[in-house]
Amino acid sequence: MNFTLLVTVLLTGIAFVAIVVLLAQLISPRSFNAQKEEAYECGIPTRGRSWMQFRVGYYLFAILFLMFDVETMFLFPWAVVMRSLGPAGLLSVLFFLFILVLGLAYAWRKGALKWQ
Amino acid sequence: MFDFSIVSQWIHGLLTSVMPEWAAVLIECVLVALVIITLYAVFAIALIYFERKVCAFFQCRIGPNRVGKWGLLQVFADVFKMLTKEIINMRNSDRFLHNLAPFLVIVASMLTFSCLPWNKGAHILDFNVGVFFLLAASSIGVVGILLAGWSSNNKYSLIGAMRSGAQIISYELSIGMTMLTMIALTGTMQLSEIVQQQADYGWNICRGHIPAIIAFLVYLIAGNAECNRGPFDLPESESELTAGYHTEYSGMHFGFYYLAEYLNLFITAGIATAIFLGGWAPIYFPGLDGFNDVMAYIPGIVWFVGKTVVVVFLLMWMRWTFPRLRIDQILSLEWKYLVPISMLNLVLMALVVAFGVHF
User: Fold this and answer.
1) Cα–Cα distance measured from residue B211 to residue B232, given in angstroms and rounded to the nearest whole number
2) How many domains in chain A?
């Protein structure tokens, strides 16, 4: 039943958006105008495209996020069975976290966390 | 405490007695869909009204008071206005992605919305990996926002989307880490199970004492950032980026982002309630039997919504009190303060659980 409900919720979301957009398109007025379809950049004519090279800082943070997120993902199963694993499990995860902190410290030291 | 699954089982029994199994399941799915859409719309409208009034009172204004008594119909008027506005497609935009982005945002928030435990037995999606599913589903929204900014072919949108993407993925780390802390305490990822434990043994924020309180505070900050709200609203900072990633969206397309923003606020508060503040579990003081009995008569859904609204009010308070941060301040707050704090907190919680010094 759970996965049936998951599909139901997914379809509900899609149908909700689709129906409302359809409804809005049915009842909304339409007008045509040469300026209307231009990008809004404070009223002055747009210069060039916006699909261009972008600052690399965001990319750096995305890479960092990927590293930490994957490591957090490994910690979830441990957190569930932590009580039954006992001291051995705790020690190994502490070691794992230590390596993770080393990675963060390395990135910090290298200046990857600094926005410039 | 009243168990809502009695009602759902009664409906299931009633339907299977007059029709085959598959038809009953189909009708139940339609019912569930209707319930989700109704709740979704009702809570969005209520929250928008609430936010406007709260914001007005924080700024010594009155807020909406013209349409209907106390301005109660203002939000309905706005919804109808948005419905009757034309949806404009830009000439240079990527048409397909531009139209696809609202779908992703709404689907993400609806998936997380249906994970909320409203009452005992009243939850739509309840996986044994519930918290994990929640994190996964909520991060679909980032894709929608990035697509919206990219496909608009507008510099403001692009900058807004990039800021939003960097901010949301960064703060997701803290959210994951605080959830991990609480999972270490409860030993289960199923949301209904987590709330049931709190009904039996007391709220998690009391059970886990110091690490749980730290986790709650970190969660509130990171949750506010996840919703692009409050001091973290620089993806759509009006004064510099017009509207950020949804600059080029008009009419109901914009309405979806607006809707999803407020629902995400409610979901963040609801998850905080379910994980830290006991979900539908009533307040309980050991020793005060009469008081506890009276509290137990109040239905679970009232407790859940009440606590959630309190958390929502806290988040709104944060939003209207603090000035907006810069992008470098936001990222250094997350990476230099919240991530190390929540890692230390996780270790602290692990030690607390290992030595059994929780309640």
Assistant:
1) 25
2) 1
The whole-angstrom separation of Cα A26 and Cα A58 is 40
User: Would residue A97 count as lying in a domain?
Assistant: yes
Tell me the two tokens of residue A27.
């009842």
Q: Which of A76, A84, A95, A97 to mutate to test the interface with B (most CBs of B within 10 A)?
A: A76
The pTM of this model reads: 0.89
Sequence letter at residue B45 = I
DSSP lists the bridge partners of residue B119 as B122
* CA B49 – CA B342 distance, rounded (Å): 34
Cα-flanking dihedrals φ and ψ of residue B90, to 5°?
-75, 155
Tokens of B29: 């799915």
Q: Do the Cβ atoms of B125 and A2 come closer than 8 Å?
A: yes
3-class DSSP state for residue B122? strand
Q: With residue B131 as reference, give the H or E element that holds it.
A: helix B130-138
Asked whether the predicted pLDDT for residue B15 surpasses 70, the reply is: yes
Burial class (CB in 10 A: 0-12, 13-18, 19+), B14: exposed
Domain interval for residue A87 = 56-116
Domain membership flag for residue A15? no
* A38: in domain: no
Reported as a single tens digit per residue, the pLDDT across B114-163 is: 888 888 877 888 888 888 888 888 888 888 888 888 888 888 888 888 88
Task: Number of A to B CB contacts under 8 A, please give it.
Answer: 196
Q: DSSP string covering B300-353, please?
A: HHHHHHHHHHHHHHHHHHHHHHSPPPPHHHHHHIIIIIIHHHHHHHHHHHHHHH
CA-based nearest residue to B250, from B94, B87, B101: B87
Give the list of residues 6+ apart from residue B8 with CB closer than 8 angstroms, or none. Answer: B121
First to last CA, chain B: 22
Distance from CA of A13 to the nearest CA of B (A): 5
Please judge whether B354 and A113 are an interchain contact, meaning their C-beta atoms are less than 8 angstroms apart. Answer: no
- Whether residue A91 is contained in a domain is answered as yes
Question: What span, in angstroms and rounded, lies between the C-alpha atoms of B192 and B282?
Answer: 15
Query: Tell me: the pLDDT tens digits for B266-286?
Result: 999 999 999 988 888 888 777
> Which of A72, A84, A102 best tests the B interface by mutation, with the highest count of B CBs <10 A?
A72
Phi, psi of B119 (to 5 degrees): -155, 175
Locus of tokens 């230590």: A98
